[in-house]
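note to self: dont lose this again. the chain is below, predicted strucutre after it. 396 aa total, dont forget to put it in the shared folder this time
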Amino acid sequence: MALTKLAYGNTMLTLPIDAEVLLSPPTSAVGPSVEDAVQIVVQACIEAHRITLAVPDPTRPAVHTQALPVLMPYLAAKKLTIVIATGAHSAPHAEYLAELQQLAPQARVVVHDCDLSPLTRIGTTRKGTPVDISSLVLEADFALGIGSVAIHPFAGFSGGPKVFVPGCASRTTITANHSLLVQKEAGPALLHGNPIYDDLINATEFVKGAFIINEALSPEGKSLGYFAGPIEVAHGAAAKLALQAAAANIDEPYDLVVASCGGYPRDINLYQAVKALDMASLACAKGGKLILLAECREGIGSALYEKWAKKPFAEQEQMVTTSFKVGAHKAYLAGRILKKLQQAVLVSELAAETVRAMGFTPAETLEEALELTNANECTRIAAIPFGTTTLPIVCR
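---
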């Protein structure tokens, strides 16, 4: 029996039963290097004096740790501000700020706060989203966003416009955009025609001349290349490569799916881990069972998510359609999946009573989770090592 290793925080767990491992086929496609991407940016910002860089918060892969050391020497003479694009997330810890300052000692580092940071209303999207973006981004001569691109459960792909919106936007803007997730076209691996993505692109069109550096990632976090340029162009190229690496074709859904988020930081909290629940559920038969491995070292991750997860699904559904709340929407996303499953077991560091309140069955170990799901009675079992970023596709 071949043993499957599954990430849990910074450690690895061994799956002690046979399972079909869902991984995308290896890809030989390789994109441009980080040095190539930086040169495109350098040429684009030659005449700029004030530059604002938007970088991801700790809940995202730290692509900036590769790009900034190459980029910083070229920006030595510039007035540089780095905005940590938290969106509606909590502020990063002090260690993260210190690490970022070390990478860019000449820069002023600012944490974006969607409620308190200076914002400028610059328009309204065609879908009616009011666009409020950080004044630090809008007042710069050149705005550069740095991010990573992988499958996203409702925005199509991560990266691209998301570093600016929702990353550097107001809660009002984030709420209006996220409310579009109830539309059936909002889903993984779709850009144009996806209401979330179309709205994000429209919103960032107000950031004149904005550029990005996006690293395309495989599900396991391997770099596939760096793409630089205007948002839609660079993001589209990175997404194409990321999709090639993420698709995992299956003949039919499974009775039991055992999914890891992919380890830290993707399982930093339950709010982030729901993405893996969402993606892994695509491989699970209706009425099937799912085990989610998510350390959740920083707890739930959202007070609103925790509050609304305890409410009936009917109330969650009414909330997203009549009075959408960012954070609470994650309860709806999780709830619509949990109601389709016979059982969802969460292996985490959360207290058992907390896990139950969030709609899951708690387990302290993977072995306990397998016992709770009667795995030995399941005919078809799948293991997904990188649940957040693997796209199961049923091919019948």
